[in-house]
Amino acid sequence: MASLFWYKNPYDMEKTELLFRKQMRENMKHHYANCKEYHALLDRFGWDGTKIQNMEDIADIPVLPTLYLKHHRMDSLPTSKMLTRATSSGTSGNKSNIGYDLTSLWRMLGMSVSIGRRHKLFSLRRCRYIILGYEHRKAFDKSHKDDEKAVAKTAYAFTYMAPAKSRIYALRYQNGEYSLQLEAIKEALIKYSKKKTPVRIIGFPFHAYWLLTQMKEEGITCHLPKGSVIAFGGGWKEYYTQRADKETMYKLVEEVLGIPEANCWEFFGAVEHPVLYTTCPKHHFHVPIHSRVLIRDVDTFKPLPMGQPGLVNLLTPMIKSAPVHSIMTDDLGILHEGSTCGCGIKTPYLEILGRVGMDDITTCAAGAEKLSQQIIQEVLK
Ligand SMILES: [Zn+2]
């Protein structure tokens, strides 16, 4: 068993636990030796990487809040080793900027292959892609590739899961800025519904919801060819309070586009934790072998038992280029016992409840902020 990331069954936690721990230890050792800021942080906490002897020990790894990464760029490799960089998709304020080297990208590819095969995301049949998001800029604006949003990269990667006959984007990059072209997307959908080639749509759920609601109001229904798929990624962001529940969304998709619920996929991931979470047939995000999730109490940051809501802490030994092996997101979530899903996958599944920082969950925002401050102070001491 050479690599956790090229392991065939992405949900076989039992057989890969040892490997996960080993790679976590190696990853921490690498970051400790190569990232000055992270070195200082571990020294402050008196943390010794060799301590990861069992799975419970990973909870003691000092976490890096994504809030901290939004203010400080942390690299564990020289710039010359970074093949690409990506930023988080926050619409305002600071963004995390993470570099990826060849090893990290190779692991990411292995993980995508294993997840893609398990969830039958790949197809040999040509299809037309509609990306309800940012146009991938690299092809015609190399000067900006360094700070491309991770979400644009993910959407672009998605267009390789089946051969592309064509790709169109809702947010076109023209004369140095993006412009939203929903009318063009509507026209394309109508045109494609009269053809035989399947269509694959990917985007933020709120963009899809706006478009489909608008189409429904205008009385436009265009049932897409058999085999068409719609995939949502990136969550509801600042529109979280206006979110549509899953049933409403799937009903709308079926009504307007004729895509059945089984072909509605959802992805979850973060620029600081680029593990591909994909929904099972029951629409749950089971934790794959490449990742672990801890839910932490918003005040004490102690790990909580399954079923209790708290701050989402994501762990993975995937990334060599930045010390992101244990990051504290500003998401609130619950971890559920895998067997309660009923789809057959045994690993626990993560339910995202929302993003802290909104008015209605101020205590958690304060919690994340407090942790961030604490770590910043520790590092800067
Ligand atoms: Zn499931």
What would you say this structure looks like, in words?
The chain has 381 residues and is an alpha/beta fold. It folds into 2 domains: 1-79 and 286-381, Luciferase, domain 3 (Roll), CATH 2.30.38; 120-279, Rossmann fold, CATH 3.40.50. Helix content is 31%, strand content 24%. It contains 9 helices and 15 strands. The protein has helices at 13-34, 36-45, 66-71, 102-118, 150-158, 182-193, 205-217, 246-257, 362-380, and strands at 64-65, 82-87, 97-101, 127-134, 164-174, 177-180, 199-203, 229-233, 264-270, 273-278, 285-286, 292-296, 310-315, 326-336, 349-355. It has a 7-stranded mixed beta sheet, with helices on both faces. Strand 8, helix 8 and strand 9 (264-270) form a beta-alpha-beta unit. Helix 1 (13-34) packs across helix 2 (36-45), helix 2 packs across helix 9 and helix 7 (205-217) crosses helix 8. The termini are far apart. Zinc ion binds next to loops. Zinc ion binds at residues 280, 282, 284, 286, 341, 343, 345.
In short:
This protein is α/β, with parallel strands linked by helices and 381 residues long. It contains 9 helices and 15 strands.
H/E series, N to C?
HHEHEEHEHEEHEHEHEEEEEEEH
Find the count of extended strands (DSSP E, 2+ residues): 15
The side-by-side strand order for the widest beta sheet comes to 6-5-4-7-8-9-10
Question: Could you tell me the mean pLDDT?
Answer: 85
CATH class category name of the largest domain: Mainly Beta
Oligomer type: single chain
Overall radius of gyration: 21 Å
Tell me the distance between the termini. 42 Å
Total discrete domains? 2
Residue share in β-strands: 15-25%
**What gross morphology would you assign?**
globular
Which blocks of ≥5 consecutive residues have pLDDT under 50?
139-146, 358-365
What is the CATH homologous superfamily assignment of the largest domain?
Answer: Luciferase, Domain 3
Q: What hetero molecules are in the model?
A: zinc ion
CATH structural architecture of the largest domain: Roll
Q: Provide the helix percentage.
A: 25-40%
> What name does CATH use for the topology of the largest domain?
Luciferase, domain 3
Q: Tell me about the largest β-sheet.
A: 7 strands, mixed
The number of helices is 9
